[in-house]
Amino acid sequence: MWLRKLQVDGLRNLQGIELSPGRGLTVIVGRNGQGKSSLLESIYMLATGRSFRTRKLDELVRWGGATIRIEGEVEAKSDHSRLKVILHGKERRLMVNGAEKALESYLGRLDLIDLTADRMHALKGSPQERRRFIDRGVVGISPGYLRALGEYRRVLQQRNALLRGGIRSDAAGQLDAWDERLVAAAQGVHLRRREYLERLKARSAEIAKVVFPDGEALTLRYRCSPRDAEKSDPSAFSSMFAQALKRQRETDQGVGFTTLGPHRDDLAVELEGNDLRKFGSAGQTRASMVALKLAKLELLKEQRGTHPLFLMDDFDADLDEIRARAVAESLAQGGFQTVVATSKISFIEAIGVNFDQIHMEKGVAHA
Ligand SMILES: Nc1ncnc2c1ncn2[C@@H]1O[C@H](COP(=O)(O)OP(=O)(O)OP(=O)(O)O)[C@@H](O)[C@H]1O
Ligand SMILES: [Mg+2]
User: How many angstroms separate the alpha carbon of residue 49 from the centre of ligand 1?
Assistant: First the structure.
C-alpha cells in the first residue's frame, strides 16, 4: 500500500501541503510546534475519518478557519483510489474517487498502523486499553469479530441487568439461560483473542530480536478471565467458563454485575519475564511497542496481501542511540511505506539509512 500523493489544508496549523511521499522511509522533521504531528494526524484522518488526538473534530479546524481539506492518492495491491476528507465545523464528508461514502464503505482503502503518543497507554494504562489494543488487531484480521464482540457486550448487559435487579426465585431460571448465552458469546471473543495473541507473540518475539540488540526476550501472555483458562486447551474454555460462572454466581448477585469473563481479560507484555506495565523503563516500553506494532503490521500484511502504511510520531523519544538505530534500520529496510516524525534529524542522519525528508515550518511543508 502506497500513499503516493497527499494534500492538506486547514487542519490545525497546516497550510497548502502538497506532497508525494516515497515508498520507503519518510522523515518529517521540524522544531516543536511546527506541525509534524498534525501532518501525521491528517494521514490518519485520511485513512480512518478520525483523529488520533481528539474525538472533537471541530478542534482540528485551524483557529479562525472553517474548513479542513485532506486529499490523497493511494495505490493498493490491485487498485488505485483518490480519497478525500472534508471537515466543516462538526460535519464530515468522505469521498472515494469523487463519490461520497458513508464511513463503513469509506474505510479499508488506506490501511495503517500508527504508533503515536496515546497508543503507549496500551502498555502502561488500564486493562481496558490493552483489551482495545487486542480487539483492534483482531478486527483488522477478521472484521466479523466486531459482531462477536457486540453480541458478548449485549448478553453481558442483560445478565448484569438481571443481577442488578436482585434475583427473585422465578428469575434463577432466567439467569441460567443468560449464563448459557454468555458462555457461547464469550467463546467467540476468547478464542479469537487467544489465536490472535498467539500469532502476535510469535511475530513480536522475532521482531524484538532486532529492536532489542542486547537480546532481551519479549513475550506476551493472554491473562484471560477466568484465569484458569489461560493454561488449558482452547476447546475447554466453554465448560470452564460455565463452571466458573456457577461458582461465582453468589458473588455476582452480591455485587450486581458479572465478575468473570472476557470483559475482564488483560494482556501482560513481558521483557525478560518482567511485566513492562510495572517494571518497564520508558525506552524499554517504547521499543516493545515498536515491536508489537511491527508485528501487527506483518499480520495485517499476511491477511491483506499488502503492507499497511506505518506512522510513528516522536521517533526517537526515549530510545537510546543503539535502539533508535535498530528501529530506523528495520523501518528503512522493511519494504513498506513509513512516515515518522522527529525534532532531531541529526539522530536519523547519523544512522546512515536511506530516507526522504519533509521539513515542517509553521505549518508549511518543504520537501
Ligand atoms: N486548531 C488549531 N488551529 C491552529 N493551530 C493549532 C490548532 N491546534 C493546534 N495548533 C498548533 O499547531 C502547531 C502544530 O502542532 P503539532 O502538534 O503538529 O506540532 P509538532 O511539530 O508535532 O510539535 P512537537 O515537536 O512539539 O511534537 C502547534 O503550534 C499548535 O499550537
Ligand atoms: Mg508532535
Answer: 19
